[in-house]
Amino acid sequence: MFLNEISSGFISTYSLVKDFQDWSGIDRLKSAYLGMVLLDIEAIFSDEEYLFTPREAARAMRMSPRRRKGFTAARVALKRLARQLNLVEKDRPDREIETLGPDDVRPCLAESKIYCSVSHTGQLLVAVADRHPIGVDIETVSEKATRAKHLFMSPRERDLISLSGLGPERAATRAWTIKEAAAKALGLDLFQTFREVEVVRVGEGEGVIRYREKTYPIRHGEENGYVIALVSFNNLLKSPG
Ligand SMILES: CC(C)(COP(=O)(O)OP(=O)(O)OC[C@H]1O[C@@H](n2cnc3c(N)ncnc32)[C@H](O)[C@@H]1OP(=O)(O)O)[C@@H](O)C(=O)NCCC(=O)NCCS
To answer: How far apart are CA 74 and CA 186, in angstroms?
Structure first.
């Protein structure tokens, strides 16, 4: 619960957000990047009138109720991140903190040059920020990724699943989250990412990918059947927006 923020009156649009402080490895993830927020989507109560900027409201209007719930939670998390990182004035209301990038699709943190990424699945949402292009994905561990592995992994990548010692579902789900996180960070479509981003190591807490002859570390968190992948590309791309 954001008691301080609620009592300050600046964030009056939602009353309860449960953080998942007890995730194993979450502190390790948080400390590796500029900022990270993990929220329970079901525990968010927000008044959209006070939360959304005009562009966010216009986008939300076109969404189904389920999609809108995730989109709203993403706005809550990104506005919170912008405040945590002091990217906006303390007294700026939420409805004046833009979290929808110029393309109306990718997320942003107000008018800052800080990169961010968001992912939601079922009950959970994760938002991250960094000084370099960053991507995040959260998925439930399931056999879906194992069944579809031939679609997004090369034969060499598929060999990593058994080498990882994690079991097929946990390893293949990690590989899937890695590719989605990388796609978001690089601004590639998923099929291009499947081809151009090679997973070279799958591990419980860390993995490695290769992209354009360079390798980059992947970091994972896992709890209660959810797995997160985070990747940040140092010195790679132009600034956002
Ligand atoms: C982007 C994509 C991979 C996300 O997949 P997903 O598992 O369904 O959804 P996630 O919850 O993990 O991520 C959704 C968030 O990613 C962000 N996102 C969407 N498209 C994005 C893009 N092209 N680049 C970076 N981030 C993007 C948004 O913040 C979105 O949440 P929001 O709309 O509520 O703010 C998926 O929308 C997709 O496949 N799109 C088709 C186009 C495509 O292939 N894009 C790949 C570039 S990422």
So the answer is: 20
